[in-house]
Specification:
- There is one protein chain.
- By secondary structure, the chain is of the alpha/beta class.
- The chain folds into 2 domains: about 65-80 and about 345-445, Alpha-Beta Complex (Aspartate Aminotransferase, domain 1), CATH 3.90.1150.10; about 85-340, Type I PLP-dependent aspartate aminotransferase-like (Major domain) (Aspartate Aminotransferase, domain 2).
- The chain is built from 12 helices and 13 strands.
- The chain has helices at about 10-20, 50-60, 85-90, 90-95, 105-125, 135-150, 165-175, 220-230, 330-365, 390-400, 410, 430-445; strands at about 130, 155-160, 180-185, 205-210, 230-235, 255-260, 275-280, 295, 305, 370-375, 380-385, 405-410, 420-425.
- The strands form 3 sheets. The protein has a 7-stranded mixed sheet, sandwiched between helices.
- Helix 5 packs parallel to helix 9.
Length: about 450
């Protein structure tokens, strides 16, 4: 029994030893509404060959990002990743290493983490950054929990421009942490008034820039309002390349900046693994979740690196820990760091300008298509269009004609009256021919 080593008698003995009446008792902390009470719609057993054949046939239904004009974004972006990035992260000393618990034999890993933290802090214009998190969505809930600890409050206000998946992660965790979450309705035109929701019980306000609909937001005034009410401002980003061109969260008064680092160094990979970025003001350092790598000197005065202020569950009692995220997505943050190092500041700024220019060109082309309205007044490399008819159907028809034309907003926020909206992204990988193909094909579809 290589894969199922425990018999039913074994399970009964184990439950008896720990004093649990049944297996369900082990999952009592999971809300009833989140528990699956029926079997998945899958066959109970198939041979290994059958499973491989079945999954291969399912995978063949996908259109690979590089096989067609590609304008999908909404939190995951297609960028050029230099071949040297993958070559370097596949070196055995990086590929096989894991947790740097013993600094005397993990100096290379620790230095890589230290350099990554330095880059994230510089990108976000914040004082300190941690050694990464699972992804942008889990970094967001960790930021909310950090704000709770700092303010001793339990209310989070979520902007209607926050990515719906990020908001859903916050709402999923909050019942288990006792948080009250106020989620504002989708804010397509960036006109919401978050100040009305900030009261004496609010621990934080969470706003995204650029937001999920592509709008650029200046949150400087909101920062002042938060400070006046004793709440923290958490600024989220899903497109790290945007930080090469737009004002960084720290420059607009953010207390905590979190986001997704996938678009630098990490390809789409069918949804993961990705890498969460997390930075904050230095005065909140001791409440930061996850790992933190610091620089020091050894007994002989030589430069060295160590894990420091590590209030993680593996280093401290569970109830005292700031986070139960057990990894730092080490290989993904190394890929991020290598790519950003290859770009340098000038390269990142040039890459960001190309992204913006391509998106501006695309928006102009789509605005001339009959039945299309570009909604954004400002954007980086992503914007929202309104089409006559059902947007999801239009996107499907575009795909049938060989163009991956964006994400229907209704797919992210079903039942919210967004059925005629498509979120469109254009990166440095889109050519003039690609943009022309989307415009002409969409005209035909509509």
């Amino acid at each position: 029994m290589r894969y199922l080593p425990l018999t039913q008698d074994d399970r009964i003995d184990m439950l008896a030893r720990i004093g649990a009446p049944d297996i369900d008792a082990l999952f009592a902390s999971i809300p009833e509404s989140k528990q699956l009470r029926q079997n998945l719609d899958l066959p109970e057993r198939k041979t290994e060959i059958d499973v491989q054949r079945l999954l291969s046939n399912m995978a063949a239904k996908n259109v690979a990002a590089g096989a067609a004009p590609f304008f999908i974004g909404a939190g995951a972006y297609r960028h050029h990743i230099p071949a040297s990035v993958d070559h370097l992260i596949q070196r055995s000393e990086f590929m096989t290493s894991y947790t740097p618990y013993q600094p005397e034999i993990a100096q290379g890993t620790l230095q890589a983490i230290f350099e990554f933290q330095t880059q994230v802090a510089a990108l976000t214009a914040m004082d300190v950054a941690n050694a990464s998190m699972y992804d942008g969505s889990t970094a967001t809930i960790e930021a909310v929990l950090m704000a709770d600890r700092i303010t001793k409050r339990r209310k989070a206000v979520l902007s209607g421009g926050l990515h719906p998946h990020y908001a859903e992660v916050v709402r999923t965790i909050s019942p288990m942490t006792g948080d009250d979450v106020v989620s504002l309705p989708p804010d397509v035109l960036a006109r919401e008034n978050l100040a009305d929701e900030i009261d004496s019980g609010a621990s934080c306000v969470v706003v995204q820039n650029p937001d999920v609909f592509g709008n650029l937001r200046d949150v400087s005034a909101l920062s002042a309002m938060c400070k006046a009410k004793g709440a923290l401002l958490i600024v989220v980003f899903t497109e790290a390349v945007s930080l090469g061109l737009i004002k960084a969260p720290g420059e607009m008064g953010a207390d905590i900046a979190v986001g997704e680092g996938q678009s630098i160094g990490n390809s789409l990979n069918f949804g993961g693994p990705y890498v969460g970025l997390f930075a904050a003001r230095s005065k909140y350092l001791r409440q930061m979740p996850g790992r933190l790598c610091g620089e020091t000197t050894d007994a002989e005065g030589r430069r060295g690196f160590v894990l420091t202020l590590s209030t993680r569950e593996q280093h401290i009692k569970r109830e005292k820990a700031t986070s139960n995220i057990c990894t730092n997505s080490g290989l993904c943050c190394l890929a991020f760091s290598i790519h950003l190092t290859l770009l340098g500041e000038a390269g990142l700024r040039r890459l960001a300008r190309i992204n913006h220019a391509n998106a501006v060109d695309l928006a102009g082309r789509l605005a001339r298509v009959g039945g299309v309205e570009v909604l954004n007044k400002s954007f980086f490399n992503e914007f929202t269009i309104r089409v006559h008819g059902d947007a999801a159907e239009a996107v499907e028809r575009l795909a049938e004609k060989g163009v991956l034309g964006g994400v229907p907003a209704s797919r992210l926020s079903p039942g919210q009256g967004l059925d005629d909206l498509i979120i469109v992204a254009s990166s440095e990988l889109n050519t003039d021919e690609d943009r022309a193909a989307l415009a002409s094909t969409l005209q035909g579809v509509l």
